[in-house]
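Colleagues,

For the teaching module next term, I've prepared a clean inverse folding example: a structure given as tokens, and then the sequence designed for it. I'd like students to try predicting residues themselves before seeing the answer, so please don't circulate the second half yet.
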């Protein structure tokens, strides 16, 4: 679709400018005042145009358990989460749509879905999420979550001898499955990419990581993983490898420019230098880290060391929403308490650049996305500056990041296609989505995880509680 956004506010180096933005065949072709109108005219009066953000780490099907998860640290939380994870592909479809809508309405145009797979229906799960993302039109990076060790192996032994059930799928079968997913669904030009995404060192063998590296090299796929989210994982890495998790991933060759790593809470200065050296990207998920008590990722240190950092919501079972602006706000001001030198604190403009350009860098698309530049793809978000939450008029970006923006997204385009108009999704029926989410769920207050009761005593001992 061809269109002109007329008289719209954009951020420039020393403030704001009012310009016209012209988009032809999905690409930004001109940014200047008073351009000739080609195609549809969009009124940009009193609106701010920004490049779309990336929700750079989430797990869409966790939406089914938002608001109900117990107060547990990650290791126990995971056990509860998996005991009640949805097993119905229809639910995967609905929560992918829900995740996409909330991402779009909080400024995102891309989502990295570290997708939890239904056992026995792995390819069907991937197909279902891909179908949802294609229907709604968000740019999707589907990262099927894989592992080859069972859940208890993710808890440090603390020097005791522990045995773990073998994982129900072999490493080879899992890798074949990912390769098949790549053949069927990896279509970057159509807005759907598949990533290799072992869940993390805590539940994956080197064989699995190496298989993923091989697939990534062969098919030009980006790499994703969780990394050192909790204190327990830091201990586990030492038990498993005799070195830090970062050092191990570097040794086996998993780190690099197309590698995005969610969390990175428990890293040493030496680890941070390795992330900088390998040009890996850190995905900061501040709400999840707070909700699960994982810790505060040293984001200011990462930036000072030259590490690329972006934001994610993480799954809605540990957040419990998918509001990207909220993640950006908390992910910025949280660090003011970690460093007394206020000159190191993140500014709203820095935070927005991290959320847009920072996000696409790790996805190997910085040449095509992430800024308002002629020649880049039109993944754009238009904000209504007359909305009450953005009034009175001060600094639009300051208020967008530090305020509590509510229903401020007026329009969203992905690859030049408009998928939100006047604050409403245009590609799917939102009433139907809401009814379906309602009808596939129920109000609950009491539930008990069997797995948690089996592993909690050991966890408390190892962690010294
Ligand atoms: Zn996660």
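(Answer key — instructors only)
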């Amino acid at each position: 679709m061809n269109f002109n956004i007329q008289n719209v506010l954009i951020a420039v180096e020393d403030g704001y400018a009012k310009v016209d933005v012209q988009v032809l065949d999905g690409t930004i072709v001109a940014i200047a005042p008073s351009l000739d109108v080609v195609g549809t005219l969009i009124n940009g009066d009193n609106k701010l145009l920004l490049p779309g953000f990336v929700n750079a780490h989430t797990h869409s099907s966790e939406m089914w358990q938002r608001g109900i998860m117990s107060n547990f640290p990650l290791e126990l939380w995971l056990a509860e989460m998996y005991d009640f994870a949805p097993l119905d592909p229809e639910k995967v479809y609905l929560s992918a749509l829900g995740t996409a809508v909330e991402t779009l309405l909080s400024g995102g145009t891309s989502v990295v879905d570290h997708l939890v797979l239904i056992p026995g229906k792995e390819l069907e799960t991937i197909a279902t999420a891909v179908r949802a993302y294609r229907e709604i039109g968000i740019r999707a990076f589907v990262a099927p979550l894989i592992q080859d060790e069972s859940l208890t192996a993710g808890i440090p032994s603390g020097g005791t001898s522990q045995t773990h059930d073998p994982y129900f799928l072999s490493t080879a079968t899992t890798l074949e499955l990912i390769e098949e997913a790549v053949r069927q669904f990896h279509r970057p030009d159509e807005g759907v990419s598949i990533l290799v995404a072992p869940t993390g060192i805590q539940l994956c063998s080197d064989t699995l990581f190496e298989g993923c590296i091989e697939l990534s090299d062969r098919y030009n796929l980006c790499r994703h993983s969780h990394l050192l989210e909790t204190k327990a994982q830091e201990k586990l890495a030492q038990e498993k490898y005799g070195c830090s998790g970062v050092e191990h991933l570097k040794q086996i060759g998993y780190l690099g420019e197309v590698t995005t790593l969610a969390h990175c809470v428990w890293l040493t200065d030496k680890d941070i230098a390795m992330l900088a050296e390998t040009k890996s990207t850190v995905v900061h998920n501040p709400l999840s880290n707070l909700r699960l008590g994982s810790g505060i990722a040293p984001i200011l240190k990462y930036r000072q060391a030259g590490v690329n950092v972006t934001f994610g919501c993480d799954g809605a079972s540990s957040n419990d929403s998918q509001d990207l602006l909220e993640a950006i706000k908390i992910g910025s001001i949280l660090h003011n308490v970690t460093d007394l030198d206020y000159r190191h604190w993140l500014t709203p403009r820095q935070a927005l650049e991290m959320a847009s350009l920072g996000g696409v860098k790790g996805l190997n698309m910085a040449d095509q996305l992430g800024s308002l530049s002629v020649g880049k793809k039109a993944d754009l978000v238009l904000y209504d500056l007359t909305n009450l939450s953005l009034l009175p008029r001060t600094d639009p970006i300051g208020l967008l990041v530090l305020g509590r923006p509510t229903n401020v997204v007026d329009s969203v385009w992905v690859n030049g296609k408009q998928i939100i108009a006047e604050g409403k999704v245009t590609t799917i029926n939102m009433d139907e989505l809401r009814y379906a989410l309602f009808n596939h769920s129920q109000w609950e207050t009491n539930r008990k995880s069997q797995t948690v009761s089996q592993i909690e005593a050991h966890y408390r001992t190892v962690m010294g509680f």
